[in-house]
Design a protein that fits this description.
The chain is of the alpha/beta class. It has eleven helices and five strands, in the order E-H-H-E-H-H-E-H-H-E-H-E-H-H-H-H. Helix 7 links the parallel strand 4 and strand 5.
Length: 221
């Protein structure tokens, strides 16, 4: 795996730990970066501690390669350190999520506060429940919903872009790791080899459409 190479002078987008975990589990991190609409992604500093634990807890079949790739990726990814103001905003957002019984954990709230305050280009997340929560939550004072509009990328959208770029052979990558993401395994019909590639794309597009219908104007085009 090559070290990530970016031409941006500073981080202009964020990804959550779930995406990082799945990307190294599948072995697609570099390819994923190549199809994303921002040139330098960052993660929270906690990723260096929690993602290796998650990887070990639910190891993919290619665990040793994934572990080595994760070490390399973490050595090159920028770390998004929240300011005091962003920490306070994230705490207010997390409080509202708990009060409204919505699924947003502390790390996601911190990334959203950073996105909001710094005007990042986008936030790539593998947590569909969090996407629904972002679209439905009554935001705390100091946060504007417009700053999230068309800035969220769901993992399925990134995978669809990879499928379009890599071609039908990309299905083998997903089906080789059936325990990494159940929804992707179903979208790619891993248990039914005869299903056409048009069906795989429809499966991914269906997931994206469902999110768009539930929380309009949130996902990036």
């Amino acid at each position: 795996m090559s070290a990530p190479s970016w031409g941006c002078p500073m981080t202009n987008a964020a990804m959550d730990n779930d995406v990082l975990l799945k990307a190294v589990s599948y072995g697609i991190f570099d390819s994923l970066l190549a199809v994303l609409p921002a040139c330098k992604y960052g993660v929270l500093g906690t990723a260096r501690f929690v993602v290796p634990k998650y990887l070990k807890r639910r190891p993919p079949r290619r665990y040793e390669q994934a572990r080595a790739e994760l070490e390399q990726v973490l050595a090159h990814l920028d770390v998004l350190e929240p300011t005091a103001g962003e920490v306070a905003l994230a705490a207010a957002l997390e409080f509202e999520a708990q009060r409204q019984q919505l699924s947003l954990h502390g790390g996601e709230c911190t990334l959203l506060a950073i996105l909001h305050e710094r005007g990042l280009l986008n936030f790539l997340t593998g947590d569909k429940a969090a996407i629904l929560a972002i679209g439905r939550i009554a935001l705390p004072g100091g946060m504007e919903r417009s700053r999230f509009e068309r800035k969220i990328i769901c993992f399925e959208r990134a995978i669809l872009a990879l499928l379009d770029r890599e071609g039908d052979a990309f299905r083998q990558v997903i089906c080789a790791e059936p325990e990494v993401d159940m929804a992707l395994r179903l979208s790619f019909s891993c248990s039914s080899p005869g299903v056409s590639s048009a069906s795989w794309r429809e499966g991914l597009q269906s997931e994206i459409r469902h999110l768009n219908e539930q929380v309009p104007n949130l996902l990036i085009d």
